[in-house]
Amino acid sequence: MQIIDTHCDALLKLQLAKRGAFYKQEPLDFSSAEEIETNFARLQAGGVKVQFFAVFLYPDLPSDEKWQHALEQVDLFYTEIIGKNPAMKHIKRWEDIDALNDGEIGAVLTLEGADAFGNDLMKLRQLYRLGVLSIGLTWNNANLCADGAGEPRGGGLTLLGKDVVRLNNEHRVFTDVSHLSVKGFWDVMELADYPIASHSNARALRDHPRNLDDGQAKAMFQKGGMIDVVFCLDFIKADPKEVVIPDLIRHIDHFCSLGGVKQIGIGSDFDGISSHIKNLENASKFQNLINELQKQFSEEEVEGFAYRNFLDHRPGMRK
């Protein structure tokens, strides 16, 4: 069964390896590098049809270096992922997904945290031109747009952050709420035409600031947004010593109980997590999740979780 995965951090790994090459370390080959959980071979083996690739910057980077670091990751997307793997096709518009041929994998460029462009909306518009189709305003820290889930102040969107959401709407770009503060989340709900939680679970099952409570989940579903469950162990169970696939499925089942069966998807966070669900250690194992889902849900529902729900809720494509 096809898979659409709305979050991974392979670009950061590629960048760290490339920068390390200056110190006699070897750069990574996206096609088959063992270190990359979403390498091309594993995406193929796992049945992935569309993979989202996030541009992520460490929050302690000096502010005057962040734009350069972001552009390096975008360049790696073009050179190492698209340029060296002919079957990887850059999704520049949401309709491009429908044009993918058998054996081709769509690659979507996203931004995790507005730190890259600071308060310079010209840079944001340049990211749109480069093909960024989803923007998370924050990571866990605060920035000029909003407070993140880990910021004790818990503030919402700034005036700049609200302008960014409006620009996302104009460009048919997702506004990603996965790392936002609670107040920031509700500010996005008021403004965003295309909200998504690219990698979040249910707070009712695991009380973690990165997860969504029932009120937030219901608001997402009412707004037409997607919630894509994440494989990070700490977002699944309070005791993450050994997490198995049914533990993750409990979060899917809970979101279904809130009315979201048509708006649930997958946002693995591969290459951004350090420990893994048993039998779901990299992208080649996605069909293990599908097999477990088929024990509990109908084939139509499983297809929805795997890819169909996303296709039906792309910006400008909702039924």
Automatic annotation (TrEMBL):
Superkingdom of this protein's organism: Bacteria
Transmembrane regions: none
InterPro entries: Metal_Hydrolase, Pept_M19
Pfam name, any one: Peptidase_M19
Name of this chain's protein: Dipeptidase
